[in-house]
């Protein structure tokens, strides 16, 4: 379905080049839900935007992105425009800014249908009603403006838009980040249900591993522009960074985290000044001397997990 | 130490309706205690926090500090604000991008005319974990990482040597791996300096990480409160039960439909009844829809405001 092969994204700034994504290879099977986790500056959103070539001009993309056997990076504009809605679509974070504030939401959902499907007005409004029903909104909401909706409802509208042209792949970038706990649970339930009902593949991006583990079959963790671990969401993490990221969101009721918040010293690295050796070594609680100089590629840890750490068994 | 008694805060809303953002709250924060005020957006938790800081005037009820009711005259408000300091979320938004770290932290001491400004700033930065402090004096917010900016905001609050910190979502905008360090800092400030804190958050994991006590707020009222272990491991109110049930690791989810209702139209009876899963399952009583509940007192013991939960709240009536 989707295959990334040594994807790189470098932002060309006036003064220097910023390597945001430094070689990411991933596969996503049809109907599979994959979670991509990472913090700010890890490159996870650059990966999402690169998949549909939505990056600004200053970004140079390398490697290959194969979508259903077609190389996205080599597509002509016309083909790309068609692919963007009908093969793969994106649900962005921040439901506040993704919608046009002065257009009724029914018209916003209908737009891709009219443009990409050449749907008639009547067909489009019928489909809008269907889509609203699928995301759990009443049909009369089509006449509302974004400011009349709550954050959760706006996120539902964004999901309806992404579903409009029946894509096979949905890329969801922090779809629940600004939402309250209960509303987040509602939206996650909706996403889970939609991918199950329609057999859609999902690439979900978030800084919150627990949210990803909730929806996705497999998890990939990024740090400083690279994958540090890929494995099933049910198993234990092996890379010290993934472990720290998981511990940052404690399990309520777990005595080990009671009055004992856990995190990492320091901050995620600046992509312009990456540390040598393993990029994680300055913050790593279990780093060896060799980690400061030698970089480690993803290596197998068990049958279905890979991790980029010297301490992970061959 | 810091206490709200029968607090009501209303705002005039659209048209003639008034929003009862805080609709009867008793809450106290003891010396050296960390209390988490938990609720969804729109439940009134931020208004409650602002009123506790003296930034919002209550419609009725009172705030008292060390047993003295807060009066809203300039001088006593000033003294009060030295004792009770606000730590805002989103350090990028609350720091002036054109002020250096030194200027940001020195602002409070200057307003209050504290002597020996440089020593005050330097000690506040050190206590917030920015060491050596002199290295940060001349830096601007954009030169700092998110975690460092949040520490600058905390240092600004510490500069006045307060007794109570009120922190509104102190880690919501931070990277996951940095969160733990900032929360550890709050715990350390309590242990080393005996600071009290009221942490306003929607994040139950955060409350589990640092809070001694939790108050769960729904539509302007506290619906359940008590020691953290008690409330989070054995929740009694159906709303608290639902909030905990949607955490990722939880087995049986109770996903409430709808969104937090409108503070201009508070339902009759128990204000939670239109969304209550017990009422929906037919396990409610007539009182749920008709009989208002009493306001919970400011006690540290476990308590719940529910007609059905088999507990203290009902026995008190």
UniProtKB/TrEMBL annotation, chain B:
<dbReference type="InterPro" id="IPR017871">
    <property type="entry name" value="ABC_transporter-like_CS"/>
</dbReference>
<feature type="domain" description="ABC transporter">
    <location>
        <begin position="2"/>
        <end position="244"/>
    </location>
</feature>
<keyword id="KW-0813">Transport</keyword>
<dbReference type="GO" id="GO:0005524">
    <property type="term" value="F:ATP binding"/>
</dbReference>
<dbReference type="InterPro" id="IPR027417">
    <property type="entry name" value="P-loop_NTPase"/>
</dbReference>
<dbReference type="Pfam" id="PF00005">
    <property type="entry name" value="ABC_tran"/>
</dbReference>
<dbReference type="InterPro" id="IPR013563">
    <property type="entry name" value="Oligopep_ABC_C"/>
</dbReference>
<keyword id="KW-0067">ATP-binding</keyword>
<dbReference type="GO" id="GO:0016887">
    <property type="term" value="F:ATP hydrolysis activity"/>
</dbReference>
<dbReference type="Pfam" id="PF08352">
    <property type="entry name" value="oligo_HPY"/>
</dbReference>
<dbReference type="InterPro" id="IPR003439">
    <property type="entry name" value="ABC_transporter-like_ATP-bd"/>
</dbReference>
<dbReference type="GO" id="GO:0015833">
    <property type="term" value="P:peptide transport"/>
</dbReference>
<protein>
    <submittedName>
        <fullName>ABC transporter ATP-binding protein</fullName>
    </submittedName>
</protein>
<dbReference type="GO" id="GO:0055085">
    <property type="term" value="P:transmembrane transport"/>
</dbReference>
<dbReference type="InterPro" id="IPR003593">
    <property type="entry name" value="AAA+_ATPase"/>
</dbReference>
<comment type="similarity">
    <text>Belongs to the ABC transporter superfamily.</text>
</comment>
<keyword id="KW-0547">Nucleotide-binding</keyword>
<dbReference type="InterPro" id="IPR050319">
    <property type="entry name" value="ABC_transp_ATP-bind"/>
</dbReference>
């Amino acid at each position: 379905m989707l295959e990334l092969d040594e994807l790189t994204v470098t932002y060309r700034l006036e003064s220097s080049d910023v390597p945001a994504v430094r070689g990411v290879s991933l596969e996503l099977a049809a109907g599979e839900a994959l979670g991509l986790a990472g913090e700010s500056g890890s490159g996870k959103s650059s990966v999402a935007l690169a998949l549909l070539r939505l990056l600004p001009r200053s970004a140079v993309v390398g490697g290959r992105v194969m979508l259903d056997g077609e190389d996205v990076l080599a597509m002509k504009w016309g083909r790309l425009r068609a692919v963007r809605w009908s093969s793969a679509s994106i649900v962005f974070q921040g439901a506040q800014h993704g919608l046009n504030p002065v257009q009724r939401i029914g018209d916003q959902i209908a737009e891709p249908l009219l443009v990409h499907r050449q749907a008639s007005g009547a067909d489009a409004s019928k489909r809008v009603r269907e889509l609203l029903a699928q995301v759990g909104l009443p049909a009369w909401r089509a006449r509302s403006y974004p400011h009349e909706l709550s954050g959760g409802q706006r996120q539902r509208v964004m999901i309806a838009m992404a579903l409009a042209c029946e894509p096979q792949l949905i890329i969801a970038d922090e779809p629940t980040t600004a939402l309250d706990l209960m509303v987040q649970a509602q939206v996650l339930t909706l996403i889970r249900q939609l991918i199950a009902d329609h057999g859609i593949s999902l690439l979900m991006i978030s800084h919150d591993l627990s949210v990803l583990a909730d929806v996705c079959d497999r998890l990939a963790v990024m740090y400083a522009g690279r994958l540090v671990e890929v494995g099933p969401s049910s198993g234990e993490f092996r890379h010290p960074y993934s472990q720290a990221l998981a511990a940052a969101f404690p399990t309520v009721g777990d005595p080990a985290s009671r009055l004992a918040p856990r995190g990492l010293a320091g901050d995620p690295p600046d992509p312009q000044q990456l540390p040598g050796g393993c990029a994680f070594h300055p913050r790593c609680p279990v780093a060896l001397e060799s980690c400061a100089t030698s970089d480690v590629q993803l290596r197998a840890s068990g049958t279905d997990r890979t991790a980029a750490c010297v301490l992970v068994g061959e | 130490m810091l206490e709200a008694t029968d607090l009501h805060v209303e705002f005039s809303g659209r048209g003639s309706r008034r929003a009862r953002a805080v609709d009867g709250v008793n809450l106290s924060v003891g010396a050296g205690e960390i209390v988490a005020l938990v609720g969804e957006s729109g439940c009134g938790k931020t208004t409650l926090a602002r009123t506790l800081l003296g930034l919002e005037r209550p419609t009725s009820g009172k705030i008292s500090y060390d047993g003295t009711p807060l009066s809203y005259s300039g001088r006593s408000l000033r003294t009060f604000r030295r004792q009770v300091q606000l730590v805002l979320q989103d350090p990028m938004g609350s720091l002036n991008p054109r002020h250096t770290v030194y200027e940001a932290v020195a602002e409070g001491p200057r307003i209050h005319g504290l002597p020996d400004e440089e020593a005050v700033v330097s000690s506040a930065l050190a206590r917030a974990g920015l060491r050596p402090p002199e290295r940060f004096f001349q830096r601007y917010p954009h030169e700092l990482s998110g975690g460092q900016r949040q520490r600058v905001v905390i240092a600004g609050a510490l500069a006045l040597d307060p007794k109570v910190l009120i922190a509104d979502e102190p880690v919501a905008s931070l990277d996951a791996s940095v969160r733990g360090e900032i929360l550890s800092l709050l715990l350390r400030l309590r242990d080393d300096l005996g600071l009290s804190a009221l942490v306003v958050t929607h994040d139950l994991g955060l409350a589990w990480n640092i809070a001694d006590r939790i108050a769960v707020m729904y539509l302007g009222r506290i619906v359940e409160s008590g020691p953290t272990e008690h409330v989070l491991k054995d929740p009694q109110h159906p709303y608290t039960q639902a909030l905990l049930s949607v955490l990722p690791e939880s087995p049986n989810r109770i996903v409430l439909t709808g969104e937090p209702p409108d503070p201009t139209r508070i339902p009759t009876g128990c204000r939670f009844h239109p969304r209550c899963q017990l009422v929906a399952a037919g396990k409610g009583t007539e009182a749920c829809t008709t009989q208002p509940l009493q306001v919970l007192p400011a006690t540290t013991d476990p308590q719940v405001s529910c007609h059905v939960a088999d507990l203290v709240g009902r026995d008190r009536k």
